[in-house]
Design brief:
Layout (H helix, E strand, L loop, with lengths): L2 H13 L1 H6 L2 E6 L2 E7 L13 H18 L6 E11 L7 E11 L3 E12 L2 E15 L10
Antiparallel strand pairs: 1-2, 2-4, 3-6, 4-5, 5-6
Length: 147
């Protein structure tokens, strides 16, 4: 991945309103790979103390979209076609890490796996795994938003 594309993805991520709400950080951006970290906030937590499913689903969707975008050199963007999540363990911890990796990067469709880890201390526990299919769209209006 070239430096220009990496900067473009980082700037797009920083403009994302939902990621601003989550106070999310893009930790790793490389070709076909994108990682996001969010720290616990009260609106993300269920009464029992674990992160709620909607927070996890949002991280899956955003991380997958950026992973797919990181595997392209153009200024195209992606929209989710299908998203399947398996919630494996209660997401208990101080933060979540979404680790998305492109499995198949096609001309129109990309398939991305996104795993969500709950972090307690130094331990990462796999809370959810997902498979996301995304469609590549052309940016015909020269918009700067990638997600």
């Amino acid at each position: 991945m070239n430096t220009e594309r990496k900067i473009q993805l980082q700037q797009s991520f920083e403009r994302s309103e939902i990621m601003k709400l989550f106070r999310a950080e893009a930790n790793i951006i490389s070709e076909g790979h994108f990682e996001i970290t969010v720290s616990k906030q009260s609106f993300m937590i269920r009464p029992a103390g674990m992160f709620n499913g909607s927070t996890i689903a949002s991280l899956v969707d955003v991380s997958a979209g950026y992973a797919a975008a990181s595997a392209t050199l153009s200024d195209s963007y992606f929209t989710t076609v299908e998203l399947k999540i398996n919630y494996l363990n209660p997401a208990m911890g101080e933060k979540l890490i979404a680790k998305a990796q492109v499995i198949k990067n096609g001309k129109r469709l990309s398939v991305v796996r996104s795993d969500i880890f709950a972090v307690q201390g130094n331990e990462e526990i796999l809370a959810a795994t997902s498979l996301v299919t995304l469609m590549q769209l052309q940016n015909n209006h020269n918009e700067t938003q990638i997600d």
